[in-house]
Each structure stands twice: as structure tokens, then as C-alpha cells.
């Protein structure tokens, strides 16, 4: 039975936790972490054709048939982002009546890390 503390609240038992150990499935024999634990994590992949900055006044005047000029020239590669981080450049292709992207340049891991700073 719990005994009351000096302030009248009952004393509760202390929580106990198991010691954390490395999971054999997540660590390779050489001690490096395995990517297997994250291979099924979903990420958001997005392609950016271009951007435009326009005043709200002009935004409110847009309707079907309006044309918005982008800051990117025709024929320039589009940007490929994963969770908001630029990872590659590519070009639009059509495969079986669907759009796709052919990667033309992949940003190196070193360059991605440098851009984060």
C-alpha cells in the first residue's frame, strides 16, 4: 500500500526500465548501422518545374486560361526534391500516357549536406 507524503499525496512506486542494447538486426557485424531499418519509410518526392513571385492582386485575378510566367527558361531541367531537399535535376518524359522524370544529374551527398548549413 502506498504511504502518503508530507504534502498528503500518496507515494507512488518508482518506474523501472530495461537497459537499452543494440539491436542485432539494425547493426552489421562490422558495427555500422544497417539501412534496412529505414528502407520502408515513406518520403515525399516532388518535382519543381519553376517558380514565380506575383503580388496577391495578380493572384486573385487568375482564372482558367491565365498564363503565369515562371522564372525558369524552357528546356532547363526541373528540380527533384525529397522532403524539401534538392537531390537531383531531371527532364520530363511521357511513359504510357503518364508523366515521368528522367534524372539527368544527382546532387552528391556532400553537396546536399553543404546546402543544409
From TrEMBL:
Bilayer topology term: Peripheral membrane protein
A Pfam family reported for this protein in Swiss-Prot or TrEMBL: FliMN_C
All residue ranges annotated as the Flagellar motor switch protein FliN-like C-terminal domain in the record: 38-107
Main location per the UniProt record: membrane
One biological process term in Gene Ontology: bacterial-type flagellum-dependent cell motility
Swiss-Prot/TrEMBL keywords: Bacterial flagellum, Cell membrane, Cell projection, Chemotaxis, Cilium, Flagellar rotation, Flagellum, Membrane
GO cellular component: bacterial-type flagellum basal body; plasma membrane
SUPFAM superfamilies for this protein: Surface presentation of antigens (SPOA)
Compartment(s) of residence: Cell membrane; Bacterial flagellum basal body
GO MF assignments: cytoskeletal motor activity
Database matches in PANTHER family: FLAGELLAR MOTOR SWITCH PROTEIN FLIN (PTHR43484:SF1), PTHR43484
Family: Belongs to the FliN/MopA/SpaO family.
Biological role: FliN is one of three proteins (FliG, FliN, FliM) that form the rotor-mounted switch complex (C ring), located at the base of the basal body. This complex interacts with the CheY and CheZ chemotaxis proteins, in addition to contacting components of the motor that determine the direction of flagellar rotation.
UniProt name for this protein: Flagellar motor switch protein FliN
Species for this entry: Hydrocarboniphaga daqingensis
